[in-house]
């Protein structure tokens, strides 16, 4: 403390030209090498000189600068002295431009060796390029690939800026990244907390690095085995399924691994059956079916990697299921209109909900497709909305007039002003995108409640999809037309709706052999 006070008192007696030499002169030359003009260099000088003085007063050497030091500087209550003949304003508003100048200076320190770099930034860029190259498949949209590239680049920039080497990841690295107050170069205006989807993208990147042997996998959550990281990477790269589906398989196998064991060499038909029986005792039919599906997928992965015998996949019992044994839940066309009309277009929330309900009712969209709809997916000139289904294949659906009108009313007059590209946003600040299918289900259930329809078994968001298919068949549409709207790859999937087409059934039913009922 005494040394800091002594230094603070000494600074005003020093010449500015001598005090900032050579570090600021070197910084100016570095900027010129990047084609910065003299005016740009002059505009940055105040923030950088202030930062250098503050570091001196705090006794912080250049090699010890990290994001925590930078945030302290941004927050400090300024009483910093100035060397002689220096006119910069210490108390100037520390806005994004001010922050950006300091971040650029620290970037200069790392690139020129004043602060040690944890890894070569060009190497990090190549890792991102290799990872993104694996994502560029027809089943995955360009916007999704761009989102991945942005998040993994941000993660590596955060590591590079904070001095975190690739081989030094700890188990809480994802938590630290999720919650860090961002001062990363090129990213410092990002939201203060990363979303679950963004963290899932980074987790997949870390699994990829682990699979390549670049990192040792210490980033795994507690209790997650190394083999599961390879399983995640295999699902992600080879199965063409959604991130949320990958997370579902990972969740279920992580639950089962305690009973199954972590060594594939010990797996036998008997061992697998006993592990399932222990884990699934008392479980619901739905959970048993999901668990056995995930286990078959895991065993296929192990067999592909040569770590277990392929025939072990057949050791997983099949849950009995009779195709078309259930009936789709639906409501008649008049009740669909009653549900849609419950949304008040005069309010922002009502306008949003009306657009959601109409997309579900007219185009039979799935809840996840509502969440993933982007502004760029709507082709207003040709009245087409582009939808990415389960297989990530993009299809164009015609945009009915009432759906288009509802979307215009929401987007132009009621949607919060934000850079978020998702069409539908949360009604409450900070107006982020709707994250889970349950949000869409809540909109539908609230509309059903307001409509006065009394049926506790109606369900949620899929009700309107099922109703659209059923009412189309009853209105005379062919099974092929309905399958096209629902985007089913097989007509057999659509055939379940024939069971609730009463007009069709009455035409083929045979008379009761006993004659008329008495």
TrEMBL record:
This is Integrase. One of its GO terms (biological process) is DNA integration. One of its GO terms (molecular function) is DNA binding. Pfam families: Phage_integrase (PF00589). InterPro entries: DNA_brk_join_enz, Integrase-like_cat_sf, Integrase_catalytic, Integrase_recombinase_N, Tyrosine_recombinase_XerCD. Keywords: DNA integration, DNA recombination, DNA-binding. Residues 326-510 form the Tyr recombinase domain. The lineage of its organism: Bacteria, Pseudomonadati, Pseudomonadota, Alphaproteobacteria, Hyphomonadales.
């Amino acid at each position: 403390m005494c040394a800091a006070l002594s230094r603070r008192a000494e600074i005003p007696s020093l010449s500015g030209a001598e005090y900032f030499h050579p570090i600021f002169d070197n910084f100016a030359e570095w900027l010129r090498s990047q084609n910065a003009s003299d005016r740009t260099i002059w505009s940055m000088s105040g923030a950088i000189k202030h930062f250098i003085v503050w570091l001196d007063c705090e006794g912080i050497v250049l090699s010890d600068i990290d994001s925590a030091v930078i945030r302290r500087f941004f927050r400090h209550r300024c009483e910093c002295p100035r060397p002689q003949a220096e006119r910069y304003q210490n108390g100037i508003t520390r806005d994004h431009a001010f922050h950006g100048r300091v971040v650029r200076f620290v970037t200069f320190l790392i690139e020129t060796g004043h602060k040690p770099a944890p890894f070569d930034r060009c190497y990090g860029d190549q890792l991102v390029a290799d990872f993104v190259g694996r994502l560029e498949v027809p089943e995955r949209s360009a916007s999704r690939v761009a989102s991945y590239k942005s998040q993994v680049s941000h993660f590596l920039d955060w590591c590079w800026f904070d001095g975190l080497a690739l081989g030094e990841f700890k188990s809480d690295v994802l938590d630290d990244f999720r919650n860090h107050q961002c001062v990363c170069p090129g990213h410092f205006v990002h939201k203060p907390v990363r979303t679950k989807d963004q963290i899932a993208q980074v987790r997949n990147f870390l699994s990829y690095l682990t699979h390549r042997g670049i990192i040792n996998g210490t980033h795994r959550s507690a209790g997650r085995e190394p083999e599961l990281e390879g399983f995640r990477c295999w699902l992600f790269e080879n199965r063409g399924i959604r991130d949320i589906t990958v997370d579902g398989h990972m969740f279920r196998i992580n639950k089962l691994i305690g009973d199954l064991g972590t060594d594939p060499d010990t797996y036998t038909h008997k061992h697998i059956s006993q592990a399932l029986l222990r884990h699934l005792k008392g479980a619901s039919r739905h959970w048993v079916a999901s668990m056995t599906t995930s286990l078959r997928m895991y065993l296929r992965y192990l067999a592909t990697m040569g770590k277990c015998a392929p025939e072990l996949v057949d050791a997983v019992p099949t849950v009995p299921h009779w195709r078309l044994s259930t009936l789709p839940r639906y409501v008649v066309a008049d009740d669909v209109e009653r549900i849609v009309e419950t949304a008040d277009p005069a309010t922002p929330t009502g306008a949003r909900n009306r657009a959601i309900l109409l997309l579900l009712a007219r185009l039979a969209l799935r809840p996840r497709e509502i969440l993933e709809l982007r502004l760029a997916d709507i082709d207003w000139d040709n009245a087409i909305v582009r939808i990415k289904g389960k297989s990530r294949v993009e299809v164009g659906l015609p945009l009915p007039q009432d759906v288009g009108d509802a979307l215009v009313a929401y987007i132009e007059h009621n949607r919060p002003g934000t850079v978020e590209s998702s069409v539908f946003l949360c009604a409450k600040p900070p107006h982020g995108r709707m994250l889970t299918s349950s949000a869409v289900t809540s909109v539908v259930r609230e509309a059903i409640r307001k409509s006065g329809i009394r049926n506790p078994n109606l369900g949620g968001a899929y009700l309107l999809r099922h109703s659209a298919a059923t009412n189309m068949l009853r209105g005379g549409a062919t099974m092929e037309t309905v399958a096209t709207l629902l985007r089913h790859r097989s007509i057999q999937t659509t055939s379940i709706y024939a069971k609730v087409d009463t007009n069709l059934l009455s035409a083929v039913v045979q008379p009761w052999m006993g004659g008329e009922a008495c």
